[in-house]
Amino acid sequence: MKVTYYGQSTIELVADGKKLLFDPFITPNELAKNIDVNSLKPDYILVSHGHGDHVADLVTIAKSSGAKVICIAEIADWLVKQGIENVHGMNIGGGFNFDFGRVKMVNAVHSSTLPDGSPGGNPAGFVIYSESKTIYFAGDTALTYDMKLLADENIEWAFLPIGDNYTMGADDAIKAAAFINCKNIIGVHYDSFPVIAIDKNEVKEKFLKAGLNLKLPAIGEALDL
């Protein structure tokens, strides 16, 4: 399984031969200016919630790639109005089997409004059960006891927000790793704006002291999980 980081919370995960793109926010992100959005051809796009820093390139990439968009029901309805019909609406606690594996939509504690002011339903995270590995993409969230429900899911890698202010910061992300019983963490949702800038060395040291394997890939960098 391979993952490529495109800044903020945007990742591309290759699971059992299918490309899954999460929360596409690239063109407005100055840190990702070297990434060509037109080169991204995912098979699926997974959207955690409706904020602009997670959906800025959603419609563009969905139209150019023909990818199926997996998201909460309200965002699915909104996408149809944008001319995107290849959508799969879900809701919290539900799961569905796709050709790359199973997706379960789980709780996230945040807010969700689409860029045009339309309601974005509830924010969410995703657990991906593929033949290769089980992955947790937390989305934008606070630390929540609901994460403890994932402790028995054998999650091998988790994408957790660490930028603070709008989401949990590094200290709460360390607690979240314990809640979900996962040692391998990839940090997301940091540095894109001044208010979520982090000291990478300090954060890495905190995770190391907690006995966790934290990865902070450069934008455009690919990792084998």
TrEMBL record:
The Metallo-beta-lactamase domain, residue ranges? 7-189
Q: Which one Pfam family would you cite for this protein?
A: Lactamase_B_2
Look up the domain of life of the source: Bacteria
Keyword terms = Hydrolase
DNA damage found in the keyword field = no
> Which molecular-function annotations from GO does this UniProt entry contain?
hydrolase activity
Q: Which family does it belong to?
A: Belongs to the UPF0173 family.
In Swiss-Prot or TrEMBL terms, this protein is called: UPF0173 metal-dependent hydrolase FPZ43_07500
Give the originating organism: Mucilaginibacter pallidiroseus
